[in-house]
C-alpha cells in the first residue's frame, strides 16, 4: 500500500475531462522485455497469500498497483519519462523527496511510501496514481489538463522502493482496479479477464533483467545498480566471471551459463534454483592463469528453463586483454 499524499498537498476543483471508462496507454518510455519489465502486478488473492492476475507469483500480499521496473539505477539516472495512462486533470502531486540511487538501505519518511508522485483524475470516478518518481522531475502542475504525450516526470527511487520503477495504481470510485483484469467478479487465472490496455501487453512470468562480465563474483547490490558489467577485463585481474540477474525465479527453475571464447567453450555451468525469489542472480567463472588467458572477445549466454522449456535467454560480450 502506498500512502501518497501529505497534508500540505494542494487539490484543485477542475471539472473531470470525461465520464467514460478509460482505455489505457503504456505510461513509461521504454520497451518491455528490453529495457524494462513488469516486476509486480496487483495482488488478486483476497487471503493472506498473494497472486497476480494469472495466479502467478509476480505480486505480494496487499500490493495495489503495477510495478514497471527498469534494469538498473544507472538506467534510471539516464532519464526515463512517465506519461499518463489516459487524458485527465492533475489533482495532486508531490516532489522533493530524495532518491535512493546506489543505496543498500531504503529509508523513507512516514506517509511518504509513494515518494514523489502525481494523481490524475480521468472522470467518471477513475483516477491513476504514479509513484517513486525522480526528485525534481515532476513536470506538471495541480489543475493542469494532460494528454497521453504529456511528460509527468521521470522514474526514480523515491519513497519505499528497492529498485527504480514506476508504481501505477488505477482506481474507480476509490477502489483499486487491476488494469490487466478490471472485472472485480473474476479471479486470478480467469481466461475472460478484462484488460483496459489499448495495446496487448503480454504476460512475462520470469526473465532476465541484465547480464555482464566481471573480474570477480559481484555483490548483488552492484548488479542491481548497473555497475557490475565490465566492457573489458585485464588478464591480471585474477578471475573471469559471467553473471545474470533474473526476476520471477521459481524453485526448480534451471539456469545455464555458458562462456565461449576464441578457443570455444571457456566455461559451462548449470544450476537448479532452490527457492522462489522476486529477484536473484547467478554467476560462473574461472580463475585466470597463464594457460587460459587467451586475449580476444568472449561471449556469455544465460538461459532460464522451466520444466525443460526455455523461458528466457540473454547474451553479452566482453574483451579479455593482456598487458
Q: Can you describe what's shown?
A:
- With 323 residues, the protein is mainly beta.
- It folds into 2 domains: 36-177, Glucose Permease (Domain IIA) (Distorted Sandwich); 207-321, Sandwich (Immunoglobulin-like).
- 3% of the residues lie in helices and 38% in strands.
- It contains 2 helices and 18 strands.
- Strands 1, 2, 4, 5, 6, 7, 9 and 10 form an 8-stranded antiparallel β-sheet that branches.
- A hairpin with a 2-residue loop joins β9 and β10 (175-177).
- Mean pLDDT is 90; it is low at 1-19.
Task: Give the arrangement of secondary structure elements.
Layout: E1 36-40, E2 66-70, H1 73-77, E3 81-82, E4 88-94, E5 116-123, E6 126-133, E7 145-146, E8 153-154, E9 165-172, E10 175-177, E11 207-214, H2 220-225, E12 232-234, E13 239-249, E14 254-261, E15 264-272, E16 277-287, E17 296-306, E18 309-321
Parallel strand pairs: 12-18
Antiparallel strand pairs: 1-2, 2-9, 3-8, 4-5, 4-7, 5-6, 6-9, 9-10, 11-13, 13-16, 14-15, 14-17, 17-18
Amino acid at each position: 500500500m502506498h500512502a501518497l499524499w501529505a497534508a500540505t498537498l494542494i487539490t484543485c476543483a477542475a471539472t473531470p475531462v470525461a465520464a467514460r471508462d478509460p482505455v489505457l496507454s503504456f505510461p513509461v518510455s521504454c520497451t518491455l522485455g528490453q529495457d524494462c519489465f513488469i516486476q509486480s502486478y496487483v495482488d488478486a488473492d483476497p487471503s493472506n497469500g498473494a497472486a497476480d492476475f494469472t495466479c502467478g507469483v509476480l505480486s505480494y500480499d496487499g500490493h495495489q498497483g503495477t510495478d514497471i521496473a527498469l534494469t538498473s539505477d544507472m538506467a534510471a539516472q539516464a532519464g526515463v519519462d512517465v506519461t499518463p495512462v489516459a487524458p485527465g486533470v492533475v489533482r495532486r502531486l508531490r516532489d522533493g523527496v530524495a532518491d535512493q540511487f546506489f543505496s543498500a538501505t531504503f529509508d523513507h519518511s512516514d506517509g511518504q511510501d509513494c515518494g514523489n508522485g502525481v494523481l490524475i483524475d480521468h472522470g467518471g470516478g477513475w483516477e491513476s496514481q504514479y509513484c517513486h518518481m525522480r526528485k525534481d522531475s515532476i513536470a506538471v502542475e495541480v489543475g493542469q489538463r494532460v494528454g497521453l504525450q504529456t511528460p509527468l516526470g521521470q522514474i526514480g527511487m523515491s519513497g519505499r522502493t528497492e529498485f527504480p520503477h514506476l508504481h501505477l495504481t488505477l482506481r474507480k470510485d476509490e477502489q483499486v482496479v487491476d488494469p490487466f483484469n478490471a472485472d472485480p467478479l473474476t479471479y486470478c487465472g480467469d481466461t475472460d479477464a478484462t484488460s483496459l490496455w489499448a495495446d496487448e501487453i503480454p504476460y512475462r512470468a520470469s526473465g532476465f533483467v541484465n547480464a555482464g562480465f566481471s573480474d570477480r563474483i559481484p555483490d548483488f547490490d552492484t548488479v542491481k545498480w548497473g555497475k557490475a558489467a565490465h566492457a573489458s577485463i585485464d588478464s591480471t585481474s585474477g578471475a573471469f566471471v559471467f553473471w545474470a540477474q533474473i526476476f520471477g525465479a521459481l524453485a526448480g527453475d534451471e539456469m545455464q551459463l555458458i562462456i565461449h571464447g576464441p578457443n570455444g567453450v571457456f566455461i559451462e555451468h548449470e544450476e537448479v534454483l532452490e527457492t522462489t525469489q522476486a529477484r536473484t542472480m547467478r554467476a560462473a567463472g574461472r580463475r585466470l592463469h597463464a594457460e587460459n588467458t587467451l586475449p580476444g572477445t568472449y561471449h556469455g549466454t544465460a538461459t532460464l528453463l522451466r520444466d525443460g522449456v526455455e523461458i528466457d535467454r540473454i547474451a553479452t560480450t566482453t574483451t579479455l586483454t593482456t598487458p
